[in-house]
Amino acid sequence: MILRDLRLHAFRAHAETRLTFAPKVNLLVGPNGAGKTNVLEAVHYLCLSKSFIASQDGYVLRQGAPFFEVEGTFEGEQRPHLRARLVYVPEEGKRLFINGAPLERLAQVVGMLPVVVFSPLDQAITAGGPDERRRFLDNILSQARPVYLDDLLKYRRALRQRNVLLAEARRRGAAPPPALMASWDEELVTLGSRVIAGRLRFMHEFAAFLEAAYARIESVAERPTITYVSLDGLDPEADEAAVAEVFRRRLARLARREQQRGRTLAGPHLDELVFYLNGLEVRRYASQGQHRTFGMALKLAQFFYLQDRLEETPLLLLDDVFDNLDPVRAEGFLHLLQSGAVGQSLITAARLDPFDGIVPFGEDVHRLIRVEAGAVCEAGA
């Protein structure tokens, strides 16, 4: 998939900006605060209906503007021409239009325009808490399988309702109504078991993609592996029915503790991914260089996994990552981006140095775009 053009209106630093892109490497270069990352953020909005940085849409709106709008034209293997437009109005929310037609639900766009983002924030995936790794996992599976995203959203709604019931019972100092609790238990088990079973299947599929991606960017013969930690006593080969049986038993054992704490204490919202290099846990034992390499491998594996499952090449967004890479890894990664293995990439950087003599921006397939103060000052093929 290729992004041909992009328009930003009242989007962070950009009052009104229009850009066109080349089919391979596109470098947005300029000083910090110029609005380079805003461009990648706008693309992410079109692909997944949300920012990869801001927790609230209101933070993205340019000060004093009544709304923001982003619009882009995409060309893909499955969809030759697709025009996406997202509009956000405070108090009204977001609406997303595909070829002029509004989507009933924002989630419908997920997987339609596959995207992979690699930024300094991603260090939290290997070094941060388990919620960061669950978010990484859910991002991949939601784009690859619409049914997974549907199950996940329904599970989260059921979890919220069950937690409300438990919290109210805790305030009253009494057990929740048995019939109502049993109903939410069954809803949680049904949906949660689908989510966990989907994650278990993904673990088996993703392992080969991760190992291959790691070998592409690291000459050291280290073997990356991932373990998915879920319900106590759960067989990694378990199907949905087996997961449901274990989940149901777990909730029964935890019933008293849940009433005491007023919240749900088991389920996929608490599960963990553990990354290893040669059997040692990355979060605890890896060096900074190993963290960066493992993070790069995870993102490349995500790229190739989505490409394989969707039969569509994702967009690759790289936000200020080359300053943190040593020259050897940076050069190797840039050669990969120019190869036939990867499609279009959009890269931000404060300096041209890492790209000099490696990416031939004089060719039509690559484009250099200079950004300053929320505007495109100069662009060239």
Task: Characterize the structure shown.
With 381 residues, the protein is α/β, with parallel strands linked by helices. The chain folds into 2 domains: 1-114 and 314-381, 3-Layer(aba) Sandwich (Rossmann fold), CATH 3.40.50; 126-311, RecF/RecN/SMC, N-terminal domain (Glutathione S-transferase Yfyf (Class Pi), Chain A, domain 2, Up-down Bundle). 42% of the residues lie in helices and 23% in strands. It has 9 helices and 15 strands. It has a 6-stranded antiparallel beta sheet, covered by helices on one side. α3 (130-144) crosses α4 and α5 (178-217) crosses α6 (240-261). The two termini are 19 Å apart. The model has no long low-confidence stretch (mean pLDDT 92).
List the SSEs and their pairings.
Elements: E1 2-11, E2 14-20, E3 25-29, H1 36-48, E4 68-75, E5 82-89, E6 93-98, E7 101-102, E8 115-118, H2 123-127, H3 130-144, H4 146-172, H5 178-217, E9 224-229, H6 240-261, E10 272-277, E11 280-281, H7 282-285, H8 288-310, E12 315-319, H9 327-338, E13 345-349, E14 367-372, E15 375-380
Parallel strand pairs: 3-13, 3-14, 8-12, 12-13
Antiparallel strand pairs: 1-2, 1-4, 4-5, 5-6, 6-7, 9-10, 10-11, 14-15
Produce a short descriptive summary:
The chain has 9 helices and 15 strands. By secondary structure, it is an alpha/beta fold.
Sum up the structure in keywords.
6-stranded antiparallel sheet, Glutathione S-transferase Yfyf (Class Pi), Chain A, domain 2, single chain, 23% strand, Rossmann fold, 381 residues, 6-stranded mixed sheet, alpha/beta
